[in-house]
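Example for tutorial group B:
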């Protein structure tokens, strides 16, 4: 129990935790947006087959990366790359709900060239991931540095208040 009526250190710690959590969420959202932009920038087309009528047609990668329902079946293969073991999903089946130009209905469309698209988009995805991971670490270090300064100031204030009570 503190002799002081008010100790700012727990409040500073709580605020630091909230700010760090918000920062991680912001970085995750920015990463998702940047990864999607890098995928769309490749200009690749996805070859899909409507599961309702069987028509094959092409869609832009932007339609495939749009949020929404998708269903997939993948096999994860672990491969060794240098000293690291890398888990990499290889999709055997990937489908997305799209508007079919032939039957005119929103139906599940199986992406036929998912492995090719996955290989094409990997470089941009990894670049965005590394960028936002470094940004998250730098921002977190900044928040911790500012919190450290605020804690030193609060500690000095608490010490002077306690000396004033004696």
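The residue assignment follows.
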């Amino acid at each position: 129990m503190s002799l002081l009526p008010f100790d700012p250190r727990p409040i500073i710690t709580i605020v630091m935790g909230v700010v760090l959590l918000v920062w991680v969420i912001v970085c995750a959202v920015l990463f998702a947006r940047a990864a999607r932009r890098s995928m769309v920038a490749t200009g690749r087309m996805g070859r899909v087959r409507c599961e309702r009528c069987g028509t094959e047609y092409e869609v832009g990668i932007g339609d495939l990366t749009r949020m929404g329902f998708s269903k997939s079946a993948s096999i994860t293969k672990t491969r060794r790359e240098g000293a690291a073991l890398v888990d990499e999903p290889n999709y055997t089946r990937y489908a997305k709900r799209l508007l079919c130009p032939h039957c005119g209905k929103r139906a599940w469309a199986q992406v036929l060239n998912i492995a090719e698209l996955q290989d094409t988009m990997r470089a941009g995805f990894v670049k965005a991931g590394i960028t936002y991971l470094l940004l998250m670490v730098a921002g977190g270090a900044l928040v911790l540095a500012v919190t450290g300064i605020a804690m030193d100031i609060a500690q000095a204030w608490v010490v002077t208040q306690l000396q004033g009570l004696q």
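Residues 104 and 164 are 79 Å apart (CA to CA). Compare this with the pattern of hydrophobic and polar residues in the output above.
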